[in-house]
Design a protein that fits this description.
The protein has one domain: Cathepsin D, subunit A, domain 1. By secondary structure, it is mainly β.
C-alpha cells in the first residue's frame, strides 16, 4: 500500500507537464487539468484537441496536442454538469506511473491547476492521508530550488 498526501507533485510526460502540484481529491470522480484555448481538429481521421495550460509560478505556458478519448458530462465544483473533453495520458507520481483519464476544465479560480480524482487512484493500492502533503513526491518549491542550485553549480567552475 502506498501512502500519498492530499497534495502531491505529479508529471504528465505525454503532455510535457512536469512537477505540477495536484490536489488528490477523493470527492471528485474524474481528474481534471486547467486547459485554456481548447481547439478541436482532425488528424488522420481522428479528433484531436490542442490546448494550453497557463503558466504558474512553477511552470511556463504548456501546449499540448492529444487525441480526444471522449466527451463527457462532468459535474463542476458547483454541482452543475458541463460537457468536457477527456483525454488519456500517462501520470507519474513518486516512483509510480499509470494512464489516467483527464478532463480539460476551466480551473482558473481553483487553488490547483490539477486534481486527481478517485477513479485515477482506484485499484492502485493507494491511501490518501488527509492531513499530510507530498508524501510520495517533493514539493514543487523544493524541486525548483534543487534545479536552481544544480544550475548555479554548473554555472561556476
Amino acid at each position: 500500500m502506498s501512502l500519498v498526501g492530499w497534495r502531491e507533485t505529479v508529471s504528465l510526460p505525454e503532455l510535457d507537464v512536469s512537477n505540477m502540484s495536484a490536489k488528490i481529491d477523493t470527492g471528485a470522480r474524474t481528474s481534471a487539468i486547467h486547459a485554456e484555448d481548447q481547439e478541436i481538429f482532425d488528424r488522420d481521421g481522428l479528433a484531436w484537441v490542442r490546448f494550453r495550460v497557463p503558466a504558474s509560478r512553477y511552470h511556463r505556458n504548456l501546449y499540448a496536442e492529444v487525441p480526444i478519448l471522449d466527451k463527457r458530462k462532468i459535474k463542476n465544483t458547483s454541482g452543475l454538469a458541463e460537457s468536457r473533453i477527456v483525454v488519456r495520458t500517462l501520470l507519474v507520481m513518486g516512483g509510480h506511473h499509470w494512464h489516467i483519464d483527464l478532463s480539460l476544465a476551466n480551473r482558473e479560480n481553483m487553488g490547483f491547476d490539477m486534481i486527481l480524482g478517485r477513479t485515477a487512484i482506484r485499484g492502485r493500492r493507494i491511501a490518501v492521508h488527509p492531513g499530510r502533503s507530498f508524501l510520495a513526491s517533493r514539493k514543487p518549491d523544493e524541486i525548483l530550488s534543487r534545479t536552481d542550485s544544480l544550475k548555479s553549480k554548473d554555472d561556476h567552475p
